[in-house]
Amino acid sequence: MENVGDKKAQRSLSMSSSIAYFIISLIFNSFGNVLTLVTSAHVHPSFLGSAYWTAGEANLGNAILGDNSLALFWAFLVLGMLVSFLNALLMKQLDWKRIFGNFIFMLPFSIFIQWFSNIFNQIMPDATTLPMVILYTLINFIGVGFIATAISIYQRVNLVLHPADDLMQILRFKYFKGSAFKAMWASYIPPTIFALIAFIITFPSLYNFGIGTLFAFLFQGGITGLADRYVFRNLKHQAVDVGN
């Protein structure tokens, strides 16, 4: 496992390379999230679910804002920024530059989520046969893989981060000695709270939780760790800062 403890504040990537890696990871992440959301929505009865953070935020967004065309955009943006302040609390410092970086990530990410969602909801029909259900299940799991790989890439680039992944990185290197697996599990506490609030508001309805969510809960952190080793293998963690 890469030891980042002695690399604080060091950056070996050029800015152009950092931006290129970041754009790739941003597209991977939003695309993967939408694959899990759309496949979950087009299998009936619903049993697939989406990635864990996606499920929690989408449920709370729909519970508060209703099922409208901008619910995902506002849910991901606002809840993401709330998490950025949780990160400041864990780091014991209010770093406005870092929080602004979270916002810089969240704005295009939320736009991509809404855009990809609108497209794929139109072109992907409901799964009405067993082969289609199996295919959608595989696509759902592949979406989780895209998310985990994206997390690996932009955590290593460390230019700006999604607040949830910034949370994972803080937990990973400040509290869990570099373990992506343990940090991912701990970082699922906020979306669990989001989902519980949504469940209280919309009782007894709760959407986007299923075997895909369980798959993400169990394996997303591990896939991120594997991607650290095998995807863009020469890309190392840049300027890791998890506070004092």
TrEMBL record:
Keyword annotations from UniProtKB, A to Z: Membrane, Transmembrane, Transmembrane helix
Chain ranges passing through the membrane: 20-43, 71-91, 103-121, 133-154, 183-203, 209-227
InterPro entries associated with the record: YczE/YyaS-like
Pfam families the UniProt entry points to: DUF6198
Keyword Transmembrane carried by entry: yes
Domain of life: Bacteria
Protein known as: Fructose permease
Protein's organism: Weissella jogaejeotgali
